[in-house]
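Late entry, evening session. Most of the bench is empty. Finally got around to the prediction I had been postponing all week. Sequence below, unchanged from the version circulated by S.P.
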Amino acid sequence: MIASFYLSGRGVAKDMVKGSYWATQSADNGNPLGQYLLAMIYRVGSPVYQKDMVKSAEWLRKAAAQNYLNAIEALINGIDRGIYTPADSKELMRLNDQKVKIKLGD
């Protein structure tokens, strides 16, 4: 994905503005990797987007809804560490169940 190349500087000059642009385009089109990358951009902030943990969690949830494992794990870790507020009292249990099913291939 183009966004990840710009965000990491892999094969191109690192450029957070271009990376943020491409992550947003991808996320808005429903791509779970783009949604995850945009969530991480919101988590740390960038020249384009201010740090916003609520938006970060929203984008992670969209990617997690598509079974994107990195997003599921980021939500689990973030909720465990108090970075993200769970959507409801059972979200953490659902995410852990979802993670296990993906890892087992169900």
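Two things to note before I forget:
The chain has a mean pLDDT of 95.
Residues 39 and 56 are 4 Å apart (CA to CA).
Will write this up properly tomorrow.
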